[in-house]
Q: What sequence folds into this?
């Protein structure tokens, strides 16, 4: 046991632990600044948020280091059990959770509140790692892929039902893991295209030359372009595709020139060209039997179906408040008093920080509570205002270092289990970083998720500590 | 398939690149927000800082004998911060501040209207109602807790000790759109001098607003002073002014001018200080204060006798015979005549009943007698002689020289009195006539020799002429402000301005004007113990003649110059002269002698108001 302890101690990745410690302490100070009021309490005062966070940090660190002592096998064995337990908890939560700011994600037990969604991240990571750990496991076998998909989508849907869209979105991070483990890039690419088409369709909501809807047309052209690039990057039968691509490109140009003189809807023509392309590729597929052509066809079909359902998706699937948030993020509407209030105030707070910030505890916007949720989801504001561009960039670079370090650690694991788990940790952190900071600086829509290690909240800091320290334990004993 | 059907290493790198690009994009966005765009700092400041204005008291005004004329009275403005208001009982609000609902609705809309209120913000206090009386203040203060978002702001309003001198004092009113655009100092609801001394000396009277910088949180609650108030500025009170007016004299003049249109101006020649400036009809300045301002102002605007216009410097009239002394001075200076030069006159010019006509008097006359009897022909001869003189290359250059000397005596341009909107009058030059007439000669323009025709002067310019004659050749720019506390008077008002006429020429004129009073046209101005020198004028115009009189007294070491003009008052001697007599008596003797009381009574009861609208010519 002593030997084991020493071994863990010696093999522990202290670089990661240092970054973790730095972030948690910086977060603690930032929470003090964010909740700082004129009737100031000490940073240690337990009635203040900073004091509470201090307790959570101590608890988290205690949990974290005790996790280091748990045998690796334990995670392997109990991965599914933990997953099932959390799923069960998530289901219960849907029914018993009180309404807190519109979400039903908190389990309230006396003075304690717990958000199971935060913990579902590491259980899902464990379960996924466990499932894909099998010898000679092949993700792209339909059955395997389907199970992996279900493992991810089940908690995602349950959390959606709790009306915690932000936390649910985080589960999409596992697709990065799947990609690393062999899922075709096309699927990731389709995911990116989903967002791209969506943005284009919403943002370019106008007609040009009186007849053609701009957004739809641009999306069709993009689809054609992607299809052509995919065909071109495939070496087999390049000569044939060359002719196909150039002749269809020619058709596109001719149609544009014609539309300039005769008024007609370019979209229909372009759609026809796209269908023609699909048919041609299908013929090629039959001729060469290369699965690559099938992916291209699938992509093209998916694009067409999606393109014509974007409006439906936006109008019918998204809640009105989500529609506004999307529009605010796209600067399509400007509503500083209402929906855009948070983002606007957040940008003002950050923007007023300047190069070096106003100094610790000197942020006027922070002190005067202009930014809502500034010690939880909008905590990055306080950093931006008081520490300026300099401090904010350092925080971003710290996250970048941590994530890259985690990827590096994951790659050096000997078992797929550890590697997959490691990638899960890195991906989840990346998603949190992207969504949270993107929202605070006004790039992405407002989606309420915490900034790892910084945001106030016991569930959040405990969950992230557990997530990270399980991996640190796995990494420390990778040689056995 | 093989174990690895894909390039794991490449995928790892793609993932790392992806994260790097993400962080890079965010850092670029941060750089844009924090370093490149400076707007956010201002927005943050306007968020967090509430600049609370501290209004200084406006400078008070005294008359030359240190009698308090204008001072301040506490008043209250109702301010509103739109964002802080909740649903409230409009009716109860209107009752508390004593206004009707329509007025409230209008004011409410005005505050929010960015066209009328460019500085509108729902976060900062906006002026809703101004000048709440102390009664309304008391009632509203008691119920203010029912109206969150409403505040009372102390402000001062003007208070007047005397119902006189409205035109000189001027009034203050809320700064209008133009004022707000011209000067950033003012915000909506601030007061600014609109006319008179209030306007002219605005920068001294208003003082400097102070500011208290308060921190305000997201809910609009005040969280204390910013950095313990080290950036606060105390308001600097406005400077007190001492006017040169003698308020008793002014009040007396206004009584004499009741029911007449016109003006009385008295200047102390040795300083240029204006002792009184009456413009009739006038109004009580205290009616243009407080909530009744707009109603009263509208009534004054609609009054056909234009009481808001200061006729003393805004009315231009033909000066009539009061112009003759100036005329004679030009001839003397140009050596056209000598005091001994005589011209003949038989009831007109050319002699023998020509036009202009003249009245019965001896002939031929010397200069002194010509002024004494106000002979028209003498000055016609003089002007003809000047315009035909071989001294000048042409009639135009003779005319120009004549004009220059007239201008040097204070005509043709604003004198520069320290009151706004002074008119310049009109003194024609050669070019002027070239434009009107293709050919002209002395006969064409002869009416200007007796102050008719193209000549126009303000009553102030007429009085200033009397002052230059009293001083024998110089004057100080007339002014109504004698002293600004802790500040030197502008040198414009302390510098002698010499006319272009040599001092020695004035003797004959003084004698002539003395003769006019002692035994000529102005004999009724002859006071028993004071040597008054005067000149009447009867200005022909489209309506009945204007009655004009100018004088100074005493003859040696003159203490006062005066001009009186009564619109449509007939001969100069009929109305203007007796008014001047009483004014001189009042000023120089301090009281009206028993034997003159009847004049006073008779003048008070004289009504000379033309029917219908004022004639355009007079008011131009």
A:
């Amino acid at each position: 046991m002593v030997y084991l302890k020493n071994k863990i101690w010696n093999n522990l990745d202290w670089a990661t632990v240092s970054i973790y410690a730095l972030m948690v302490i910086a977060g603690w100070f930032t929470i003090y600044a964010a909740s700082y009021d004129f009737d100031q309490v000490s940073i240690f005062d337990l009635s203040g948020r900073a004091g509470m966070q201090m307790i959570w940090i101590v608890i988290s660190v205690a949990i974290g280091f005790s996790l280091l002592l748990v045998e690796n096998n334990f995670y392997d064995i109990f991965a599914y059990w933990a997953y099932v337990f959390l799923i069960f908890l998530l289901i219960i939560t849907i029914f018993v959770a009180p309404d807190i700011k519109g979400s039903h994600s908190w389990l309230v037990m006396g003075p304690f509140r717990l958000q199971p969604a935060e913990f579902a991240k590491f259980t899902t990571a464990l379960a996924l790692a466990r499932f894909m750990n099998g010898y000679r496991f092949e993700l792209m076998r339909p059955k395997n892929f389907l199970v992996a998909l279900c493992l991810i989508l089940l908690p995602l849907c349950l959390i959606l039902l709790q009306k915690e869209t932000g936390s649910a979105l985080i589960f999409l991070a596992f697709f990065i893991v799947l990609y690393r483990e062999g899922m075709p890039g096309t699927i990731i690419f389709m995911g990116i295209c989903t967002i791209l088409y969506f943005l284009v369709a919403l943002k370019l909501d106008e007609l040009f030359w009186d007849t053609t809807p701009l957004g739809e047309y641009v999306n069709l052209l993009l689809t054609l372009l992607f299809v052509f690039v995919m065909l071109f990057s495939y070496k087999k039968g390049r000569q044939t595709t060359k002719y196909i691509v150039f002749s269809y490109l020619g058709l596109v140009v001719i149609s544009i020139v014609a539309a300039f003189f005769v008024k007609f809807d370019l979209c229909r023509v372009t759609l026809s060209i796209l269908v023609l392309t699909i048919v041609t590729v299908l013929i090629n597929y039959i001729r060469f039997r290369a699965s690559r052509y099938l992916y291209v066809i699938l992509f093209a079909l998916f694009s067409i179906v999606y393109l014509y359902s974007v409006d439906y998706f936006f109008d019918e699937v998204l809640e009105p408040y989500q529609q506004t948030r999307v529009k605010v993020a796209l600067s399509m509407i400007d509503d500083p008093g209402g929906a855009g209030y948070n983002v606007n105030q957040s940008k003002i707070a950050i923007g007023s920080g300047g190069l070096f910030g106003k100094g610790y505890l000197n942020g006027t916007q922070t002190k005067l509570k202009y930014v809502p949720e500034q010690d939880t989801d909008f905590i990055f504001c306080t950093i931006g205002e008081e520490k300026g561009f300099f401090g904010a960039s350092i925080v971003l670079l710290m996250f970048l270092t941590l994530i890259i370090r985690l990827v590096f650690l994951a790659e050096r694991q000997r078992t797929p289990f550890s590697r997959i788990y490691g990638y899960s940790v890195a991906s989840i952190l990346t998603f949190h970083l992207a969504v949270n900071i993107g929202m605070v600086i006004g790039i992405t829509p407002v989606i309420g998720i915490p900034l790892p290690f910084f945001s106030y909240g016991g569930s959040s800091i405990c969950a992230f500590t557990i997530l990270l320290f399980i991996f640190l334990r796995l990494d420390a004993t990778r040689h056995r | 398939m093989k174990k690895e059907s894909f390039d794991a290493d490449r995928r790892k790198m793609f993932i790392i690149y992806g994260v790097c690009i993400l962080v890079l994009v965010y850092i670029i966005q941060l750089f844009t927000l924090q370093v490149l765009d400076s707007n956010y700092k201002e927005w943050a400041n306007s968020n967090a800082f509430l600049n609370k204005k501290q209004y200084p008291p406006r400078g008070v005004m005294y008359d030359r004998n240190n009698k308090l004329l204008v001072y301040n009275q506490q008043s209250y403005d109702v301010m509103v911060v739109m964002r802080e208001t909740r649903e409230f009982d409009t009716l109860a609000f209107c009752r508390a501040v004593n206004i009707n609902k329509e007025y409230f609705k209008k004011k409410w809309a005005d505050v929010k209207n960015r066209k009328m209120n460019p500085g509108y913000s729902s976060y900062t206090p906006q002026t809703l109602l101004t000048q709440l009386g102390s009664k309304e203040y008391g009632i509203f203060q008691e119920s203010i807790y029912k109206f969150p978002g409403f505040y009372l702001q102390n402000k001062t309003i003007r208070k007047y000790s005397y119902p006189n001198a409205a035109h000189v004092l001027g009034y203050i009113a809320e700064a209008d759109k133009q004022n707000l655009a011209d000067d950033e100092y003012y915000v909506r609801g601030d007061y600014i001098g609109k006319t008179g001394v209030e306007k002219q000396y605005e920068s001294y009277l208003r003082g400097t607003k102070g500011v208290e910088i308060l921190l305000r949180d997201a809910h609009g609650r005040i969280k204390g002073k910013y950095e313990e108030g080290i950036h606060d500025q105390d308001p600097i009170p406005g400077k007190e002014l001492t006017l040169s007016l003698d308020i008793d004299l002014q009040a007396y003049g206004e009584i004499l001018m009741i029911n007449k249109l016109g003006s009385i101006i008295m200047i102390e020649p040795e300083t240029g200080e204006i002792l009184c400036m009456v413009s009739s009809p006038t109004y009580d300045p205290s009616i243009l204060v407080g909530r009744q301002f707009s109603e009263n102002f509208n009534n004054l605007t609609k009054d056909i006798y234009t009481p808001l216009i200061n006729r003393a410097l805004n009315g231009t009239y033909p000066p009539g015979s009061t112009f003759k002394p100036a005329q004679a001075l030009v001839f003397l200076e140009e050596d056209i005549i000598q005091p001994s030069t005589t011209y003949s006159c038989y009831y007109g010019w050319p002699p023998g009943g020509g036009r202009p006509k003249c009245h019965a008097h001896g002939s031929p006359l010397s200069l002194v007698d010509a002024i004494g009897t106000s002979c028209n022909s003498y000055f016609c001869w003089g002007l003809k002689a000047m315009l035909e003189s071989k001294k000048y290359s042409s009639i135009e250059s003779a005319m120009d020289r004549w004009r220059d000397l007239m201008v040097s005596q204070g005509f043709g341009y604003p004198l520069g009195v320290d009151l706004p909107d002074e008119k310049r009058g009109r003194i024609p030059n050669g070019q002027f006539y070239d434009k009107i007439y293709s050919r002209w000669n002395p006969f064409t323009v002869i009416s200007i020799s007796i102050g008719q025709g193209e000549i126009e002067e303000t009553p102030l310019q007429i009085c200033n002429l009397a002052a230059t004659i009293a001083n024998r050749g110089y004057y100080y720019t007339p002014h109504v402000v004698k002293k600004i506390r802790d500040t030197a008077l502008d040198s414009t008002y302390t510098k002698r301005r010499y006319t272009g006429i040599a001092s020695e020429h004035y003797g004959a004129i003084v004698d002539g004007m003395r003769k006019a009073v002692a035994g000529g046209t102005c004999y009724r101005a002859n006071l028993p113990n004071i040597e008054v020198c005067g000149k009447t004028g009867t200005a022909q115009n489209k309506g009945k003649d204007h009655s004009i009189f100018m004088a100074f007294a005493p003859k040696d070491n003159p203490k006062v110059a005066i001009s009186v003009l009564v619109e449509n008052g007939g001969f100069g001697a009929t109305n203007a002269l007796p008014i001047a007599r009483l004014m001189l008596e009042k000023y120089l003797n301090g009281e009206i002698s028993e034997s003159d009381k009847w004049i006073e009574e008779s003048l008070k009861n004289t009504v000379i108001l033309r029917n219908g609208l004022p004639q355009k010519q007079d008011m131009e």
